[in-house]
Amino acid sequence: MSRLTERDGKVIWHPYTQMLTARPPVAIVRGEGALLYDEDGREYIDAISSWWVNVHGHAHPYIAERVAEQLRSLEHVIFAGFTHEPAVILAERLLKVLPDNQSRIFYSDNGSTAVEVAVKMALQYWRNRGHKRQKLIVLSNSYHGDTFGAMSVSVRDLFTEPFWELLFDVVVVDAPVGGKGNEALAQLERAVNSDDIAAFIFEPLLQGAGGMIVYDAVPLDRMLALCKEYKIPTIADEVLTGFGRTGKFFASDYLINKPDIICLSKGLTGGTMALGATSCTEEIYEAFLSDDKRKSLFHGHSYTGNPIACAAALASLDLFEKKETWDDVARVSLRQKAFVSAISKHERVRNPRRIGTVMAFDVAAKGKTGYLNNLRDWMNDFCIDRRVIVRPLGNVMYLIPPYCMTDSQLESVYSVLTAMLQELPS
């Protein structure tokens, strides 16, 4: 039998990858904690939690045990007209940790679909109440997913360019970053004066794919207060920021004004399997209650509320009830803060930043910065060759480690990044 990498090259089309020029993928055969192992037995440190999902690390034995138990009783059941205990318990427990204004949980499959549900909720909320409001306000640098609704409420950039003409219109206002709070608020105030605005969607405090952009809660709070004044529903995309990433359970926990709709995925199951959830207030939910069936939310997925995925999420929530997990969140956050400080004066480092367990910095590079900057491939290969898994966003390097990553593993990652900075091509 030929090697996995060779077999992959004959049959697989990978995401976000130019298949003609990409280096062969690393064939991973098992994981444990913050480590992954390839088919030759080589050990890699997963410094980005495998696309930001594995908050508790890989192959967590407790989550695996709970999933195995669920598999022996119920693997799936249609979620229209039926229910099951894991879905009910998960919704109950999510509502206990979400902001107090959240009342209902709608399950889907992943982050993009959680956003898709939120967008549909917001648009149909107005329609069901007899108003025709069709535009959403979005932030510059935003990314909310790759389905068409999620692309529409994302910034028009490389990820969406082939489909621009097919996306619905949105109103873009500046993200309140780097002293732009007043300007962003003024832009938002002009936007909400329109009678066509259905909702305001945002990534709270951390814009992920847009470049790991960190911003403060205070200006965002002012923007949310303005939306509440104009009775515009707000949508928090917490797909990345949920489940401890920013140091609190949700980034919305830093806000005084709470969103009306919240999108969850990634860390929801501890990275074990795909699951999305969209929560909303009772006011949003009640707009869909009617004798007229046309006011129903006609949205669903074959695997909506999958019992196995719900069991994984419940196991992950169990781990978040342990003091040790939050001790690890605090520990990793402090280590990240110290590393940001240590590299901040390097001549090629620009805008070093951190929020909770997430840290990032820009690397000064020739040519146009952004996702296609050629420095991205060099930095990625440098780290992978030294058995550290990263995925730079163009010239933006970031670390999003699982909370179980040990101090020695973190030091190994920091040593590789420090060496990378010393050997950067001119």
How is this structure best summarized?
The chain has helices spanning 4-11, 49-52, 61-71, 85-97, 111-128, 148-152, 181-192, 217-229, 282-286, 307-320, 323-343, 375-385, 407-422; strands at residues 28-32, 35-38, 43-46, 104-108, 135-139, 170-173, 197-202, 206-207, 213-214, 234-237, 261-264, 276-280, 349-355, 358-363, 388-389, 396-399. It is α/β, with parallel strands linked by helices and 426 residues long.
Report on the structure:
The protein is α/β, with parallel strands linked by helices and 426 residues long. The protein folds into two domains: 4-59 and 322-422, Aspartate Aminotransferase, domain 1 (Alpha-Beta Complex), CATH 3.90.1150; 64-320, Type I PLP-dependent aspartate aminotransferase-like (Major domain) (Aspartate Aminotransferase, domain 2). It is built from 13 helices and 16 strands. It has helices at residues 4-11, 49-52, 61-71, 85-97, 111-128, 148-152, 181-192, 217-229, 282-286, 307-320, 323-343, 375-385, 407-422; strands spanning 28-32, 35-38, 43-46, 104-108, 135-139, 170-173, 197-202, 206-207, 213-214, 234-237, 261-264, 276-280, 349-355, 358-363, 388-389, 396-399. A seven-stranded mixed beta sheet has the order 4-12-11-10-7-5-6, with helices on both faces. The protein has a four-stranded mixed beta sheet with strand order 1-2-3-15. Strands 13-14-16 form a three-stranded antiparallel beta sheet, covered by helices on one side. Helix 3 packs antiparallel against helix 10 (307-320), helix 4 (85-97) packs parallel to helix 10 (307-320) and helix 7 packs parallel to helix 8 (217-229).
